[in-house]
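This protein record is not my work; I was only asked to verify it. The record follows directly below this note.
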Amino acid sequence: MDRVAQIIDFLKRTPGDDFLQHALALEYIKQGDDVSARVLFEEVLTRNPGYVASYYHLAALLVRMGDTGPAFEWYEKGMAAAKAAGETEKRAYNELKGAYEALKED
């Protein structure tokens, strides 16, 4: 069973699992299915704005898709979520901020 099928099977047993949806989105990106990945990341972040890991990947995906306006917004939301999470998400904040600043320079 390939990874996508395996994750989908897990999601059937635990629908709405943020970690599994995030993992499936990453697998879709590997397969070149950016649209499905975007949908999953947005679902995760709509349901759980504190799931910091998805902000970076969603914004980076949007940059690759040429959709920089929403990418800026997701980076900003991610930085706010990481900051709100405190010390545990300090590294995520720095990564989001670095990507945000790099995008501003382009």
